[in-house]
Amino acid sequence: MRLQGKVILITGSGSGIGRSTAQLFGREGAKVIVNDLNTEHGEETVQLIQQAGGEAVFIRADVTNPGEVSAMVEQIIAQYGRIDVLFNNAGISGVGLLHEIEPEAWDKVINVNIRGVFIPSKYVIPHMMKQQSGSIINMSSCIAEIGLARRASYAATKGAVLALTKSMQVDYASYNIRVNALLPGTIMTPFVEDYLKKSYDNPEEAIEGLKKRQLSEELGRPEDVALAALFLASDDSKFVMGAPFYVDGGVVFG
Ligand code: NAD
C-alpha cells in the first residue's frame, strides 16, 4: 500500500475527481478526511471507502470560510495528530463570454477556486512545517495553458492556482513540503456535464468536439486523475516539486 497510515485531507471529495481519489487513497491505506459543502455526498464517499475496508471521516466545511476550515483542521489534528497530504480539489465551473459575466458570478468563481486553495493551505501548512514534511496537491486545469471557449473566469482561476503552486513550493521547500499542481483535461464528472448542458444545444456533439482537441480518443475518467494524485501524494514523487502535472490525453499539444 502506497499511502499506509498517511492522514490525507481532500477538499470537495463528495463528487467527481475528489470522490474517486478519496476511494483510491482509502484502498492504498490512507486515513482519508472527506471534505465537502454537501453533507449527503460527503457521507456517501465515506461509506464507499468504508465498504471497501478503508478508513475515512467526513467533515463539512466551506473551503472559502476561515472559521470553518480552521475548525476542520483542528479537528483533524485532535483526532490524528498530523496531516500528511492536502489535496485542494474543490472547485466550481464558470461559463460565459467575459462581457456577459455578472461581477457577482465572476467573484464567486474566483472566491471558490482561488481563495478555496488559499484558506485550507493557510491552516494546514503550519502543521506540515512543524512535522517537517507534507505534500500539497493543488487542482489547476489544462485550461491554465490553452484557450477554451466561454471559460474566461474559470481559466483565470486555474492559471492563478498554477502560479500560486510555484510560489508555495519556493516558500515551503525548506520545510520538506512539496507543492504540485494537477492539470486535467476533460474528465467526465457532474461538473463537466453541467458545463456542457449550459453551453451547448447539443452536448453529444460538443463531446465529439472536445475529443478532437486531444490526442487520446477517449475523454478522461476521474480514476485517471486519481492515479496521478496518488503519485503526487506518495513518497514515490519525492523529487517532483512545483510541477504542472498534465492528465489531459494530450490536449495541450493536440
Ligand atoms: P464536481 O462538481 O464533481 O466536484 C466538486 C466538489 O466540490 C463538489 O462535491 C462540490 O460540492 C465541492 N465544493 C464546491 N464548492 C465547495 C466549497 N466552497 N467548499 C467545499 N466543497 C466545495 O467537480 P470535478 O469535475 O470532480 O472537479 C474537481 C476539481 O477538478 C475542480 O477544482 C475542477 O475545477 C477541477 N477540474 C475538473 C476537470 C474536469 O474535466 N472535470 C478538469 C480540470 C480541472
UniProtKB/TrEMBL annotation:
Q: Does the keyword Transferase apply?
A: no
- Asked if the record carries the keyword 4Fe-4S, the reply is no
Q: Name one GO biological process term.
A: bile acid metabolic process
NCBIfam families, per this entry? PRK07231.1
Keywords from UniProt, A to Z, are: Oxidoreductase
Q: What is the species of this protein?
A: Paenibacillus nasutitermitis
Which CDD domains does the UniProt entry name for this protein? Answer: SDR_c
Instruction: State the coiled-coil residue ranges.
Output: none
Fetch the InterPro entries from UniProt. Answer: NAD(P)-bd_dom_sf, Sc_DH/Rdtase_CS, SDR_DHRS6-like, SDR_fam
Q: Which Gene3D superfamilies match?
A: NAD(P)-binding Rossmann-like Domain (3.40.50.720)
The protein here is known as: Oxidoreductase
SUPFAM superfamilies (UniProt xref): NAD(P)-binding Rossmann-fold domains
- GO molecular-function term, one example from the UniProt record: oxidoreductase activity
What family name appears in the similarity comment? Belongs to the short-chain dehydrogenases/reductases (SDR) family.
Q: Which Pfam families match?
A: adh_short_C2 (PF13561)
